[in-house]
Structures are given as C-alpha cells and as structure tokens.
Design goal:
By secondary structure, the chain is an alpha/beta fold. An 8-stranded parallel barrel has the order 1-2-3-4-5-6-7-8, surrounded by 5 helices. α1 runs parallel beside α2 and α7 runs parallel beside α8. The protein binds 2-phosphoglycolic acid (PGA). The site of 2-phosphoglycolic acid (PGA) has 13 residues, from β8. 2-phosphoglycolic acid (PGA) binds next to β8.
C-alpha cells in the first residue's frame, strides 16, 4: 500500500514571520494520517528545517540546480538543499516551465541532480488549457516523463514522486474531476509499469491544481491519487490540515 503525501508548495509567498506562524500551526495540528511536507521559499528553508527537526513533517525545495557547483548565479545545488534538511525538491513546476522557459531536458537534468544527491524529486507534469482542449493530455504528460526516463532510466523513479498538475487548474479554482484525474494518474502509472511494475506500484502520484478542503476527499479517494501538491490552500494551516485530514 502506498502512503499518502500532502505537500504544500508555498511558492513566493509570505514573510519570515508568516512562515514561522504557518509551520507552528501545521506542527500543532498534524492529524498524523498522511505524510506531510512543506516547500517554503528557499531563503526560509534553514529556519523552517530547524523548526521541523524532531517532527514527522518533511522539508522540500521548490527547485534544484541541474549542476553540482560553480558559476551558476542564483541557483541552489542539491547538496546545499540536503544540508538545509530537505528531503524533497519540486522539479518542473508549470510556473518554471512557462515563466522561466525550463525545457523537458533541463527539468530532467534537475531531476537527475536531485536523485544523485539523495533528494526525492517531485516531478510536476501536466497539460495547458490549450492542450487540454486539443485532447492531447496523455501525449504531453508522456513526453514530460519520457525526458526523465531517457536521462535517468526507470531506476530514477525509485525514490521519486510525480505530481499531475493540469496547468489550467493551478491557482484558478478550476479542478479536474476525480474521474478524469484518476484516468491520467492511471495512465502515468501504466507508463512507468511498462518499464518496471514494482517501481510503478511504489511511486506516489499526487494531484495538484486548486485542491482544497472541499474537494480533497473525492480526489484522494481515487485509487491512483496518492496525495496532493497544494498551492494556495497550503498557506493557511487550517486548510492544509483539513486536506491532510481527508487523506
Ligand atoms: P494551487 O497550486 O493549489 O494554488 O492550484 C498548486 C501548485 O501549483 O502546485
């Protein structure tokens, strides 16, 4: 049985004080049902990591550099993230793909660097509204996963998490129906199973895109939805914990 993972992607929100308050709230109310993770802005990782020491709650970064070290201004290496106490690193979030033009190949290289440093990458995949309307969701998701398979092989997914995040559902209040999301999750697992059945059964596949306390239970009850990557609703401890409660 796969355990559930509820991960909060705080994006570029808040202040040091609001990050501290949010972590205090999450620590105090953790229902202990699902594995929890928070991904604060990089400058708050050390502080939040310190607050999470001795708890069951994991720390994650919002991105990771595709290079080990050197002249890469503004980037943060996988080993630095490990030193901050990170367990997870999000890679390939649609905001990185669209605003910063990160390609499938760059994202695969970031993924590979996370794996080699012993971080668990959370690989985000998903189609845009246009692609959704064209009915090419499976082809898009397959292409995004193939780039990682080509670089890392199926073994790269042994400790990885995948987040299916339809771009049209992120921050919009629109949410994929549980049936439709389940179908894509099943497709993703089937795709991995074509290379390795055991790894496919083990990989946690999260749903992301306007998940909130009202819609979480229906999504999380689907057999191939193993948790959520939560944006907006992860910024309020009560909402994040309510989602964790329904996992
Ligand atoms: P949202 O963001 O929950 O605000 O839609 C999800 C995400 O971008 O990971």
């Amino acid at each position: 049985m796969r355990s559930s993972l509820i991960a909060g992607n705080w994006k570029m929100n808040g202040s040091l004080q609001s990050a501290i308050d949010l972590v205090e709230g999450i620590k105090a109310g953790n229902p202990g049902k699902a594995q929890l993770a928070v991904c604060p802005p990089a400058v708050f990782l050390m502080k939040v990591g310190g607050m999470l020491a001795e708890t069951e709650i994991s720390l994650g970064a919002q991105n990771v550099c595709d290079q080990e070290a050197g002249a890469f201004t503004g980037e943060i290496s996988a080993s630095m993230l490990k030193e901050c106490g990170c367990r997870y690193a999000i890679v390939g979030h649609s905001e990185r793909r669209s605003h910063y033009l990160e390609s499938d190949q760059l994202i695969a290289a970031r993924f590979a660097m996370a794996v080699s440093a012993g971080l668990n990458p959370i690989l985000c995949v998903g189609e845009t509204l246009y692609e959704h309307e064209q009915g090419v969701t499976e082809a898009i998701v397959a292409k995004q996963i193939d780039a990682v398979l080509e670089l890392c092989g199926i073994a790269g997914f042994a400790e990885a998490v995948i987040a299916y995040e339809p771009v049209w559902a992120i921050g919009t209040g629109l949410v994929a129906s549980p049936d439709k999301a389940q179908a894509i999750h099943e497709f993703i697992r089937g795709k991995l199973a074509a290379s390795d059945g055991d790894i496919a059964q083990r990989v946690q596949i999260l749903y992301g895109g306007s998940m909130n306390p009202a819609n979480a239970a229906d999504l999380l009850s689907q057999p191939d939805i193993d948790g959520g990557l939560i944006g907006g609703a992860s910024l309020k401890a009560d909402d994040f914990l309510a989602i964790a409660q329904s996992a």
